[in-house]
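User: Assemble these into one structure.

Assistant: Restating your components, then the assembled model:
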Amino acid sequence: MSLIEMRNVRKQYRVGDDTVEALRGVDITIEAGEFITIMGQSGSGKSTLLSVLGGMNHPTSGEVEMAGIKLYQLPGEKLADFRAGNLGFVFQSFHLIAYLTALENVMLPLAIVSMPSAAKRQLALQALERVGLGSKPERLPNQLSGGEQERVAIARAIVNNPHILLADEPTGNLDSKTSDDVMALFRELNDGGQTVVMVTHNPENGVYADRTITLKDGMVLQ
Amino acid sequence: MKLHTISLNNLKRRKAKMAFLTIGLMVGIATIVTLVTLTRSMSHDIERKMDEFGANILITPRSSGLSMSYGGISLGGVTFDQREIREADLAKIKTIQNHQNVSAIAPKVLGGVSIANHEVLLVGVNFESELKMKQWWKIFGDTPTAPNDLLLGSDAAKVLNVGGGDSVAIKGETFRVAGVIDQTGSQDDALVFASLSRAQKILGKEGKITLAEVAALCSGCPIGDMVNQIAEILPDAKVAAIQQVVEGRLKALDQFKHFTYVMAGVVVFIGSLIVFVTMMGSVNERTLEIGVFRAIGFRKSHIMRIILLEAALVSLLAGILGYAAGMGGAKLALPFMAEGAKVTLVWDGWVAGGSIGLAVVLGLLASIYPALHASRMDPTEALRAL
């Protein structure tokens, strides 16, 4: 069984009086341990696809199954619980919480986990070590460079050891050198067994991935 | 890292906004505390004054009499079937159900006597209870202590041409004028006060009294019940409440209390609006942050807990500061609001607990909708980036 299966997923939005179809019958299968990049032009439906995959955006029709669980059939807050236990997110603009230190930002997903504080701290420090920021745990986001903030965001995404890491344009706001470093970090995580699904518009990032899915007008091209 | 860490750190970060919210709520709570404390202090003061200064139940012999006075001019009266009150019967007042509300009993015996060829009204009183009731009396000379001591009203002293230390004779018995009461503008100015026992003897009314005044009022005292209870144990007496004094003072206090409640309601409404608007603004500012929380798996209840905990902490602080400021305000305002220097501020644990509790409840209630609004945010829309 594949880790992720999307079957005939459609997503429509209402924009004023118009209906915009962001996804038009998308079928995707992703195996555990794969590194997938999702590419396409602006407006092709990449981000919508990632949000549907991330259990945050109910599709208009179709099914999304992860590890045998039909995501959008989960009752009530079970979907939030699923995200907390199985998914890690890296956002385009990092979205670190400005008033929390790097360590506290990384510990954020653990705030809702029943675990001793010392253990949470230990896990967060290990995650920061993995992304090469073990020496700056007490820095606030505004005291870190863009690349460092991205690393903190990645550490936050992996701190609870999720099955799938979802990243939306993680290098979109970084210079090319830092972008390469960040992509190398994703590759390293993937080499360690982490499944990575990344939305990117940069074709150069494709070289780090096992497979690239290209979207056009809400449909998969290949 | 726990949920409260997020709340605390956010409060630290948004100092200005949270200070505004705290001050807004604090002013509201302080206003309520000031008004409530002023009302209670003034009420307490009125009770004390009534207890100390005023007779508010009058006990007179039962008779079938008709008053013959008009416009303050008395033409005597037609009285028949007049009964008498025995002094010993007054002790029964201390056995009534509400005896703990009886502050003082002042028995009096009245009768006309001749002093230095002047007809005067002699009033036999128990000086201890009389002086307790009439603390507004200002006495030139000594207060009476010996059985043969007299106290003269200012007009009586003028007419008799005597002062403190002089002696006068009543029915062949010598009395010493211990002191003279400064002009009161009341009937007391024309009276000669002697000890009850001596007056009873001179007037030939041993063991009897003409009337008794009872000081028995506090705002919570059931004055009507007390009148009935006394009437029951003294069937030969006519017992009446001095309604005018009682009702007048209580009405004024009630009006102030109503004003306080209305003000408190307005303040609570405004305070709620301040909390609501500030918390709603705070939630809207934190859309992105809440989107991140939801995306990484926070439940709606987690978001609500973060927002409500912040509201509770700010409200708690506002409640404590509001209580302190309110008591300070009451202390400053009390001398201007109440008459007399004796009025004291009433410190009440219930007001302290109530005001802090009110602040927290108000803060939480006004934050429920913003918290619900935050928890219902769609993470995708909140983040927009995804």
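Chain A has one domain: 4-220.
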